Amino acid sequence: MGEKLHCNADYPHLFDFLDDMWPEFNEGYLRYFSQWLEGPEIVYKGRARILFVSTFFAPMMKDLSADFVCLAQDRFEVGLCEQHKLPYFLPTGWKKRLWEAYCNKWDCDALICDIGTWLREHRIKVVILKNDSLFLERVMIAGAREVEIPTITIQHGLFCNYSNIHGIGGKWTDHYLVWGEWVKDLFIKKNVLDADRIHILGYPRRIPKVGPGFGLCILGAMNHKYVRKLIKAYPYFTQYRPHPNENRNNVPRLALSPPMSNIYNDIATFGLFAAEMSTGLIEAALSGRAAVQIRVGDKDNLEELGGLYSIKPREIRKTFSQVLEPRKVNPYYVYHDPDPTKRFLEILSWIVS
User: Quick check: helix, strand or coil at residue 74?
Assistant: First the structure.
């Protein structure tokens, strides 16, 4: 093992994302983060070239021939790693120290140095993240920076014209992989990153071919009153797919997607999808399914992406009483490479070389 790092890091903005996000998000995220602090630490004793922070890109990981390890953020992600036989560890100790720092307004210098030491000792060459806006992701980036390991954030959500650029992030990571030209242009316009640090990956998952589908799948978390409107307007087979962080004991009384099931199981079954704001809508549209956004308040109009319907709650009855045909996604917003893993490795090779 190498010598322990002794750094004097200064990261005053580690927790400032809470100032940029809406109150409901702050409350939900803090509750989610605090509830996963108990339980055993799961240690990784091997070495790997790539560290994925989260299992969000598990489908792409399965296609990789390179050595990698996944940082599981909670018991749900541990289950996914075990299901897909992915190497992983669960750093409960890091999360406890990060939570204590947030609650007590402490600095995170010691934790950042320990993370940097861990990355160096395990021979990590690059750190891959799904965002650079939240607690754990930012402290991982800070630790990687201490030992000069590049960090790459892969876009994992939908962005449109009215998106809050502070919530999107991009200012902490070394490189950002986006779904299409539109987001790259947005990041350049907003001075988020230099053009040579923004790379077009396209949608990062393979899109399976599907046959005919029937019924409506509602993607969580949706306001229950809109769920009731949907059921009334569409009196056929309807299923609710809870968000991974949603309490399954507090969801509408409908048939539910099985825990830890892949969304593509639902896409293979259902012909119609609805949500307030969900990446699942774009996944459904890319697969050739009709996808409808129930647009509440001033949320982004996802119809701009070219593949979705976007309606106000008052339009639910009228919209769902007619046949909705699938729409083609505009590749300017969301490009899809037939082999996203190959494209990812090409970009990775350029960054790490």
Answer: coil
Same fold, 17-205+337-352 and 216-320: yes
CATH code of the domain occupying 17-205+337-352: 3.40.50.2000
pTM of the model: 0.85
pLDDT tens, residue by residue, 249-282: 888 778 898 877 788 899 999 999 999 988 899 8
Geometric angle at alpha carbon 201, from 199 and 203, rounded to 5°: 140
- Domain covering 216-320 assigned CATH 3.40.50.300 in the classification: no
> Tokens at residue 98, please?
């990060």
* SS3 assignment, position 177: strand
Amino acid code (one letter) for 126: V
CA distances 139 to 35, 43, 48, 189, 192, Å, are 19, 19, 20, 27, 19
Amino acid at 274: A
Tell me which residue has tokens 């990698």: 68
Q: Which two tokens stand for residue 233?
A: 């307007």
**Side chain identity at 66, as an amino acid letter?**
A
Among the listed residues 144, 183, 146, 197, the one whose alpha carbon sits nearest the alpha carbon of residue 6: 146
Domain boundaries, the chain: 17-205+337-352, 216-320
